[in-house]
């Protein structure tokens, strides 16, 4: 089993470690205050970790300097000599990761909310040049591009938001619909040239948190051949407290029932949560999740959810390297 042998490969589509490291410059990539560290990624068998760029309220008025600072932290402390991760940029590299048995670890940059782009859709070009490959237009509330899921008015995209989506289409930037208002979700589904992902969302039919996806949204992602990153956020699984790990199974089973067995992956949200699912406190716990899943699902499907689904999406949708 995975706890006694080499852990199975994992691709995790969301964590917030960059935000923590920006707010506390004294944190290195193996600091015990972090959920995600180099050692824990190794222990969990994580071959690909997506690192979100998120600007919290305590950082002040969001700007491109916050985005650039977190990219710098990634380059210096995570992808640099200290962390040793390789940076995923191109489709050819995703194919390399899929085929390789080597235990090297890759990182990919995402942007969680475009507040820091200061209302300029062409700052997406700068982000792309600096390595960002996935953009979510909002966090939970409204910004210059769209409404977040917590905005009561439930507006869709602004004119500048539509310009941004078009620019992402031209660049080859992937789009993330987690955190978007429902109307914004449907507009991105219509306007995106590539299948979007919900990097860290669960099923609202199982637990009705606003951040979870309803059945029509899940089915739309399935039809587009997008991906749904089942997440470990406790408040998306139950009203309060730390849920047991098996609380995830109902969400997996429900998405399977909607036809999404081939479209699920994981987006933990490590370092973005204060409480944790019991037994899933950091990436080193992925082998325990693997053991739980193997009690109920075939090995081939478990391997797909842990790694294959995410990497096949990137193989199909990341831009090709320009010669």
UniProtKB/TrEMBL annotation:
Pfam families: Peptidase_M19 (PF01244). Gene3D superfamilies: Metal-dependent hydrolases. PROSITE patterns: RENAL_DIPEPTIDASE_2. InterPro entries: Metal_Hydrolase, Pept_M19. This is Dipeptidase. The lineage of its organism: Bacteria, Bacillati, Bacillota, Bacilli, Bacillales.
